[in-house]
Amino acid sequence: MSEAATMPSNSDNPEANGVVNGTTEDDKASYRPPDIEADVKEMERRKRVENIMGSKIFREELEKIIEQQMREGGPASGSLLQQISDIMGSSPSWKGSMLFRGGSCMIPINDIRGVDNISYAKGEKMMRCKLAALYRIADLYGWSQNIYNHITLRVHQDEDHFLINPFGMLYNEITASSLIKVDIKGNILESGTTNLGVNVAGFTLHSAIHASRPDLKCIVHHHHPSAVAISSLKCGFLPFSQEAATVGDVSYHDYQGIVIDPAEKDLIIRNLGPFNKVMFLRNHGVVCCGETVEEAFWITFLTIKACEIQMSIMPLGLDNVIIMSDESKKRAYDTVQSGGSGGVNSKDIGVVVDANAKPSESKRERKWRRGEQEFEALMRCLDNAGYRTGHLYKQPLIRSDLPRPKYDVELPPAVSSLGYLLEEEEMYRNHPNLKKLLEGKRGFEKTRWLNSPNVYQKVEVLETGTQDPKKITKVVHYG
Fold this sequence. Notes:
Helix 11 links the parallel strand 6 and strand 7. The longest helix is centred in the middle third of the chain and has 21 residues. The protein is built from 16 helices and 10 strands. Helix content is 41%, strand content 10%. With 479 residues, it is an alpha+beta fold. Helix 8 crosses helix 11 and helix 9 crosses helix 12. 25% of the residues are buried.
């Protein structure tokens, strides 16, 4: 038998110390292509991270750090720690307090992308985004009640088509594409992107108001505890605060069970009336309506604030409370209605920007309607938190024409530097005699050097102090 045949192989020898066919594992690694070597290192790194993340002690320590930082840290660190928490899969107790500082829900509001826009009518996408954003705001403010209650919006003025939330979704899950389009009877026209349907019984209240009051495009129905408490009081909604005064007159509808009977629609219509936008449902809740999504939101906000103020004052007794007069209440309401957001900023309520311009050429700033400024501020807040509202801002927060620093010389001397002419023309209009004086002075300055008696002459002189002097040319003045 030959010597080679009697030699044991390295693979069968446990004492070969990692040598395979005369080559160690390190030697084999050196022959790997760079991309494969990088993949192997990445796999090893991920394995180490997975082992660390799987450690129970490490998870407990990290969760404690995250919870402590979210309670004590500022908004800048909140989003990063929120992402770490989502990766960890933990659900600490600080989620409810974050709200507008990042929130626990990051499902985008505007999830309509690309060719999906074609399937919607003109302007419908923007209305879907606004309504979905209002659902998110209601959830963040604590106005929601699990999957119940609705906010509806009329899509078109000429058609009885309305957007409503799918019954079964939480308010913080609503997106623009998930909203369902129905007709006045609750029949589904477009089912949205979910498998859920419509609560026809819940739409009964909304359909009655939409049918009788076409001016009210958006209807918010909620069961906020303070609103339910006020609806159950015999005294009802009282003008204790400015918020209550700006809400205006309210209506009442007695409780007759869950609103599922179509015959109750006529009574709802009569109780709401032709002008009121808020109706308290006795022992049930409240309905807040608006001509736009923004107005419906702001009326809801003011109504809830006024109810909370009234509930905090009621324990003191009505004898100790000052109720504002009807004249003061009407004056406050008229101010808000005429000035949109109260008429504080005169440029926002339609005044002429250029007083010297002709009436046909005068430019008026567009008027803010009720609730638009407040709603737009919340849209910025949601966008900054990562909700991607898709809102088209009426007035951007940052000025596009930032103020320039003022210098002594605004423009370098050039033929096109004619700005001074415009300034002088404005000055001459107010002071006609000043123009003659300045023109005479300017002419004098221009001709003074031409008529000067001074004479200059070039003279060549020799250098001094050197053995080899050179000639130097100097200009000598003879006056």
